[in-house]
Batch of 4 targets.
Target 1
Amino acid sequence: NAGVTQTPKFQVLKTGQSMTLQCAQDMNHEYMSWYRQDPGMGLRLIHYSVGAGITDQGEVPNGYNVSRSTTEDFPLRLLSAAPSQTSVYFCASRRTGGFQETQYFGPGTRLLVL
Amino acid sequence: QKEVEQDPGPLSVPEGAIVSLNCTYSNSAFQYFMWYRQYSRKGPELLMYTYSSGNKEDGRFTAQVDKSSKYISLFIRDSQPSDSATYLCATMNTGNQFYFGTGTSLTVIP
């Protein structure tokens, strides 16, 4: 059971480039989400999904796209990278239901946009 | 106003000390509260959760919620160097959206 996996671990982009951050989970969780973590700002929700084919925006969605074609995968796309998107990105998954359902986080992707 | 506010610290204590970590939240409708621990260069992991007001104890850790003052706390007794990490408080709304504090960095000195 690998849990939540993220690739790549680290990426450097130039302004205007696009890329996809991959996230996969093998726990058959319905709920998946993407966060960014910045110093002094904490974890902020970018997008989330409550099941395959269903996505919704979080607190800071601008500049990011997501799709959920399968239960296991939830990729995050940066359409045209900007320096303001330099951050650490975490993917998370949990079973839907009560608050007692644990949210599991991946190891993170560190992104630097020059 | 952010949904959850947390003192970022850093906090440095000697081994064996009692540690108190605190957060405030803005929306009185929140009923679910969590504490996550995050080691350096790792993803957060759930430490404890509580529902509504009251205390919950798990070993050396106690989570406390005071809904009248919108205050949530985490106490660590007999702190150990392995407790050195960043601690994030969080709450969840009825739509399954999570709101996190900025995290408090804790160092326990042997």
Target 2
Amino acid sequence: DTEVTQTPKHLVMGMTNKKSLKCEQHMGHRAMYWYKQKAKKPPELMFVYSYEKLSINESVPSRFSPECPNSSLLNLHLHALQPEDSALYLCASSEQGLGMIAFFGQGTRLTVV
Amino acid sequence: RKEVEQDPGPFNVPEGATVAFNCTYSNSASQSFFWYRQDCRKEPKLLMSVYSSGNEDGRFTAQLNRASQYISLLIRDSKLSDSATYLCVVNLIVLEYGNKLVFGAGTILRVKS
């Protein structure tokens, strides 16, 4: 099983809403990632969790709040987003270390209205 | 200077053509290297890892030159189904923080009949 599952696939939310994106993997990977991808741009790293601890935060605004409840799950809590936050949010997981290969979920396409 | 640079293209080629993509990276501490493929509105998927010794998978050949900090991908006998965006990806391992995958902007390939 080399699958990373993300839910929901699509999400429309208002600027005052609170919502969460979910990501799950059962490959035993100990690194999990959130990426944001705007149209016609490459994925941009937001957060890295390593052994369930937040290890990299790429200066992401606090309206995005990641959470790693256990080694298989990764959440991204959203609050007070702006329309410019509309994007494809990709979760990935990998083993640690040299030569690791990252597997991506299908993404959540988020629209902020 | 961007951490990973690619020619965005698009490369428009006929079926059966050979096409080559290049990528350069700026951080000499980068540890591992990959080519991912991304279809429109889909998640990135691993095409192949890249090694200094070069590696080949069917019609695809990847090469790494660490001295020049340069990565290449060669596609022979192009198929219509090869049309996609090809992302050069560099893994910068930050020891205490884990892996940090950095994406190039992507090169668009369009194969035409």
Target 3
Amino acid sequence: EPEVTQTPSHQVTQMGQEVILRCVPISNHLYFYWYRQILGQKVEFLVSFYNNEISEKSEIFDDQFSVERPDGSNFTLKIRSTKLEDSAMYFCASSDIPSGELFFGEGSRLTVL
Amino acid sequence: AQSVSQHNHHVILSEAASLELGCNYSYGGTVNLFWYVQYPGQHLQLLLKYFSGDPLVKGIKGFEAEFIKSKFSFNLRKPSVQWSDTAEYFCAVNDVSSASKIIFGSGTRLSIRP
């Protein structure tokens, strides 16, 4: 069964460093998403992406965040200068239709020290 | 703005007990509704979804949910839980007019005593 894959599974970084989280969505999907889950809290929407541009973003997704689809398979989330409060599990998801079922990756745990 | 409320933060049941997890949403327009499950150490997986039609939808592993439009609710049910149902359950809502964003509730942790 096709799946969404994410790397790294866990990254530890120092505050102020740049981090890139990578995702390979399911190959025939066109809609891509990033969500995050701070430990013990809800799953929060960050950004959605379609046709090589951001469709929608939340208030969390400020200028420190960016997304990119650098080639036909990868979908990346970059945090330019990490803060302690960026520590969370980041989930990538994809879907084949808008408003459709999201297929999630296993997540990348980011720890900012 | 859309919001999703799951009032049960942690539910503890014995095996074979019946389960109902509440979910209410705040948007008055046309919505798609989902329940996702996150087993310990695993990623989010879809349990079931409602787009249109029969408001009683059946999902995997014996779960079902009923969409009651007048109550803005989409409660998840299972008649007899098993120890393997121990997981975190998330209700999610998508405003059809805003196709790109699915909003999740805060989740309900379900613990099943063997």
Target 4
Amino acid sequence: EVQLVQSGAEVKKPGESLKISCKGSGYSFTSYWIGWVRQMPGKGLEWMGIIYPGDSDTRYSPSFQGQVTISADKSISTAYLQWSSLKASDTAMYYCARRTVTYDYGDYAYYFDYWGQGTLVTVSS
Amino acid sequence: DIQMTQSPSSLSASVGDRVTITCRASQSISSYLNWYQQKPGKAPKLLIYAASSLQSGVPSRFSGSGSGTDFTLTISSLQPEDFATYYCQQSYSTPGFTFGPGTKVDIK
């Protein structure tokens, strides 16, 4: 069974650092991209970035470039999202998700088929 | 960057109603369009990928159509468990996947 299990909720102060995790199991972790998605309170889904654990190739949404760092440790099938200096505006639920590629009807399809349960990050003084 | 819009932003419907949600891309994305359902406090769930392919295990009352810039998610007969927020997502500019702003479906 494919599973993505995220680390638990965090409460931090502005200026602190943080690293949250997403552990994959039940599939070849190095063969699928893992993406991160932010959901601020009461708001929609925002794609932050994505990493290929096989070689750590990483891409960021322009909105999040320089604001966060995405990494992975393939030896323990875990992807990470980290901040060096949190702001109150980083308060949100963060989801990881597996990107799958299929080939149907002569074309490729790309989508997030498995999601973690989410990690709530609260930043408050 | 490809921008995604959805309409309506919210709707009220009754059990048994046929519901249609529209998603529009700022440029042609062929059929690189996915639909997700999110219930409060839960992670999103994939419903439709590649504009019209039903994800395994998703009820057949859900269907998707469209290509280019205009797409539709249809729920043929709304069920109580379908009250949720629905998001479209483009996967044309891989690996970056922009989401639409969402459509909330609630009970009339």
